[in-house]
UniProtKB/TrEMBL annotation:
<dbReference type="InterPro" id="IPR005471">
    <property type="entry name" value="Tscrpt_reg_IclR_N"/>
</dbReference>
<dbReference type="InterPro" id="IPR036390">
    <property type="entry name" value="WH_DNA-bd_sf"/>
</dbReference>
<dbReference type="InterPro" id="IPR036388">
    <property type="entry name" value="WH-like_DNA-bd_sf"/>
</dbReference>
<feature type="domain" description="HTH iclR-type">
    <location>
        <begin position="18"/>
        <end position="79"/>
    </location>
</feature>
<keyword id="KW-0805">Transcription regulation</keyword>
<keyword id="KW-0238">DNA-binding</keyword>
<dbReference type="Pfam" id="PF01614">
    <property type="entry name" value="IclR_C"/>
</dbReference>
<dbReference type="InterPro" id="IPR029016">
    <property type="entry name" value="GAF-like_dom_sf"/>
</dbReference>
<dbReference type="Pfam" id="PF09339">
    <property type="entry name" value="HTH_IclR"/>
</dbReference>
<protein>
    <submittedName>
        <fullName>IclR family transcriptional regulator</fullName>
    </submittedName>
</protein>
<dbReference type="InterPro" id="IPR050707">
    <property type="entry name" value="HTH_MetabolicPath_Reg"/>
</dbReference>
<dbReference type="InterPro" id="IPR014757">
    <property type="entry name" value="Tscrpt_reg_IclR_C"/>
</dbReference>
<keyword id="KW-0804">Transcription</keyword>
<feature type="domain" description="IclR-ED">
    <location>
        <begin position="80"/>
        <end position="255"/>
    </location>
</feature>
Length: 255
């Protein structure tokens, strides 16, 4: 769930014939921040549904444990969703194989170490390790990232189906630069990019080194990245460390 605003019909009513399950996912997709509590009217507005419909669906989701209701009436994501999500093989299985190597990188660098998988035209973050003193970033486990504009997204895009790459490049501001980065990932197994820091505090730019995690057929299981303030220093050590870690995770994850 990406938190992208729902296109609400002018009538303010849900699309005719829209299945209840899809409406329920629109309600769940209204949550965009970890630990976020939403009042009913906010939940309805973000989901693009009438309050009465939202109230009924939210009550059902609460009964099932997918949502929980706070004392002030706000809704939060329930633990039942965490239990179910933890069983997802593309996220949980890869995370289990990657975690020891991510912890090594985390101890050595003291920065953010991210693990993501591709879901369609987006990257989904399945793990993040961050040191207490690391520069704040907006990445969160379960959050979605674009394939263009992030190092980990580029690493995934380099080994995505041709249709996904074509669509992503069509929307890129600098398609030539993206093509060069994709070629670097495919030839060197790693790329390094500098992106603007979306947070007002801290450095104006962040440096990302990312590497795909491939199976024996060359398909991307996921991608690994290190995110740190851009200090203009050589990235050779980070590039080497990320590349070695990605290869080790590929072997640990199996075929």
């Amino acid at each position: 769930m990406s938190g992208t605003p729902v296109q609400v019909p002018r009538s303010g009513r849900p699309l005719r014939g829209e299945p209840v399950l899809e409406r329920a996912f629109r309600v769940l997709g209204a949550f965009t921040e970890a630990g976020e509590g939403l009042a009913l009217h906010t939940l309805a507005a973000r989901a693009g549904l009438p309050k009465s419909t939202t109230s009924r669906i939210a009550a059902q989701l609460t009964d099932l444990g997918a949502l929980e209701r706070l004392d002030n009436g706000d809704f939060v994501v329930g633990l039942q969703l965490l239990e179910i999500a933890s069983l997802a093989p593309r996220g949980h299985g890869l995370r289990a194989a990657a975690l020891p190597f991510m912890q090594d990188l985390h101890r050595v660098t003291g920065q953010h170490i991210l693990l993501a998988v591709r879901d369609g035209d987006e990257a989904v973050l399945v793990e993040r390790l961050s040191a207490r003193g690391a520069t704040a970033v907006k990445y969160r486990v379960g959050g979605r990232l674009p394939l263009i504009g992030t190092g980990i997204g580029i690493a995934l895009l380099a080994h995505a189906p041709g249709r996904i790459r074509k669509e992503a490049l069509a929307g890129a501001d600098d398609a030539a630069c993206v093509r060069r980065l994709l070629a670097t990932v495919r030839t060197d197994g790693v790329c390094a990019v500098t992106v603007p820091n979306p947070l007002r505090s801290g450095p104006t730019a962040m440096s990302t080194v990312a590497a795909p995690i491939l199976n024996r057929r060359g398909d991307a299981l996921g991608a690994l990245s290190l995110v740190a303030p851009d200090e203009g220093a050589p990235r050779t050590a980070a590039v080497t460390a990320l590349r070695r870690a990605s290869l080790a995770i590929s072997r640990a994850a199996g075929p």
